Amino acid sequence: MICDKCGKQIEDGSKFCTYCGNPIIKIQTSNKNRCLNCGFDNDLETKFCVKCGKRITINTNLSNETEYSYNQVCNQFVNANNIKDYRKCISLFEGLGDYKDSNEKIEACKKRIEELTELENQKKQKMVKRGKIGAIAAVIVIVLALFTVKFIVPNVSKMISYHKATSYMENGDYDKAVSTFESLGTYKDSQDQMLESEYLLANSDVEEEKYEEAIEIYQSIKDYKDSSDLFILTSYNYAKTLMESKDYDNALTYIQKCNSYSDSKDLEKECNYYLAVDYMNKANYSAAVRHFNNCKEYLDAADLKEKAYYDWGCQLINQGDYQEAIKKFLCSSYSGTGQKILEAKYLYCASNKDRTSSIVYDYLQELISANYSGAQSLYDSLYQWSVTPLCVNTSEDDTISNYSSISKYNTWYFHFKVSGGPPDGSMSLTYIIYWPDGEVSNKPFSGSFSDEDFGSVSGWWNSPAYATSGNVTVKIYGNGSELASYTFYFG
Fold this sequence. Notes:
Blueprint: E1 32-34, E2 41-43, H1 65-79, H2 83-95, H3 102-170, H4 174-183, H5 190-207, H6 211-220, H7 227-244, H8 248-255, H9 264-281, H10 285-293, H11 301-318, H12 322-330, H13 337-351, H14 358-369, H15 375-383, E3 386-393, E4 405-406, E5 412-419, E6 426-427, E7 429-434, E8 440-444, E9 449-450, E10 453-459, E11 470-478, E12 481-490
Parallel strand pairs: 4-12
Antiparallel strand pairs: 1-2, 3-5, 5-10, 6-9, 7-8, 7-11, 11-12
């Protein structure tokens, strides 16, 4: 007999298939139609099993076992719906051999398998195609998502910020409007709106008397609308406000921005004048003179400038800067300036006793001409000529060896050094020799002497054997005055 499940040949009378374990339905001879699907015995007239609902195609009241198996396989063939079922039916029909139309049923199963295989292949192709379409769709979704993140989302964010900035501007919150529009860069007309917000902010600052902030903004957007004109007007009005509070320093800063607007030039002179007076009172004469120079024709600015230079010179005298004091006095015609110049020159000479300085010499010459007190004595102390005796010996070139007595048979030499005199000055000298026999020799030196020059006087007896021994005195004169005298023994 054949297993109705796996189609294997098994021993007759088996209750279970030794290959697959399927229970074997016994052949019964009864007046019932047994359902081959569930084994329920139905009435003979029943065409569908009342238990499982499957169509009944066989009559279990058979006497032939092969016929019964054939009918069972036919019943499975009718109910087959997939390739596995049809392959099972082929195996079962092959087990029946040539019984009835088993071979035809096998061919029918194979054809059905081919049809189902084709359907499955078509399904697979559709699935592959759907997979490709799905992949493409996924890529499109990703691209759209990236596009959204990169372009749409930022634009949405910028759109929101733009509306916020517009709202800030409409509500008068111009600071926030400016910063928000600025952050939007080139989005829509953000740059134009930012300029408008700055313009409105400056106007608002003027109304709130925040002049410095307004002026700074107008200057930064000077090419926008009438900002350039408002910059000048606001600077002018702010400068006048500062002048009213006597803040002339800051007022001057803003009035100079006005480019000759209205009476700004007159206001500029006024600021300079009062600043100069204030600096003068504070003994800051440098700043005072600078501001007086900027308002020469305003009130008594010219006279006060002369006074500032005078006071500046006096200040420098007290500080010991006599040369600078002289320069400042020379810029002033204020009463008493001339005498102050002489004072500064005298003090310079007295504190710089440099007899080699041409400046000291010129100043003293000027002071002596003006009969300035103390000038002549200072001059004399600096430029007095002097002659210093060095030695007496018998050598024309030896200015060091000094003898107390010289033999009358030798020629003697008296050496001296000249010092003093004005810079680059020179003096003519004469000498007188007093001999032991009472004879006196009086002669001028050839040429003139300058500071640090050396000179000498010499003498001898024509007939030393008959000459008188005794002391010889040599005296040097210059400018009518005795400058040196030296005595030694000659015999």
